[in-house]
Amino acid sequence: MTVTVTFELDGESVTVETRPDQPLRELLRESLDAKQVKSGCESGRCGVCTVLLDDTVVKSCLTPAPKVDGRRVRTIADIGTDEDLHPVQTKFVDNFAAQCGYCTPGFVLATVDFLENTDEFDREDAKKAIKGNVCRCTGYEKILDAIETLDEETDADRDSPLGTE
């Protein structure tokens, strides 16, 4: 048995058949060739499959694909490009917050969600925001440094925590 879902993926409307029990991660990677959504633990603990569903962080390995019908899904591909990085991506680069890069999309998406929903924060708040993501390379300090520099640079403009309209 399959169901048809129609949703927005990175700004484009898509219609696709899926199984009722199919994880969103599998649908994105296998049916829609969205390889930027990584596979990891398959249990929601590592965060490499993170996407934004209606601008809220979700683990796509735990999200049933039919739940996205009529909704908006954003992957790291919708956040910035090589030519025009998102401010979060820029700060990750500037602060050497990525090493192998496998976990980076999940951290970036979690940070984007956190900053879009937070007016003021400290390092402890940033730790909580990225808690659902695992990195085996960086030790998290440089990631937290990157997030803190975003806060420092936007203190004057709290209406737009990412420095964009």
Automatic annotation (TrEMBL):
Signal peptide segment: none
Gene Ontology MF term list: 2 iron, 2 sulfur cluster binding; metal ion binding; oxidoreductase activity
Top-level taxon: Archaea
Keywords linked to the UniProt accession: 2Fe-2S, Iron, Iron-sulfur, Metal-binding, Oxidoreductase
Annotated Gene3D superfamilies: 3.10.20.30, [2Fe-2S]-binding domain (1.10.150.120)
Keyword Membrane applies: no
Presence of keyword Metal-binding: yes
InterPro entries in the record: 2Fe-2S-bd (IPR002888), 2Fe-2S-bd_dom_sf (IPR036884), 2Fe-2S_ferredoxin-like_sf (IPR036010), 2Fe-2S_ferredoxin-type (IPR001041), 2Fe2S_fd_BS (IPR006058), Beta-grasp_dom_sf (IPR012675), Diverse_Oxidoreductases (IPR051452)
Residue ranges constituting the 2Fe-2S ferredoxin-type domain according to the UniProt record: 3-79
Protein name: (2Fe-2S)-binding protein
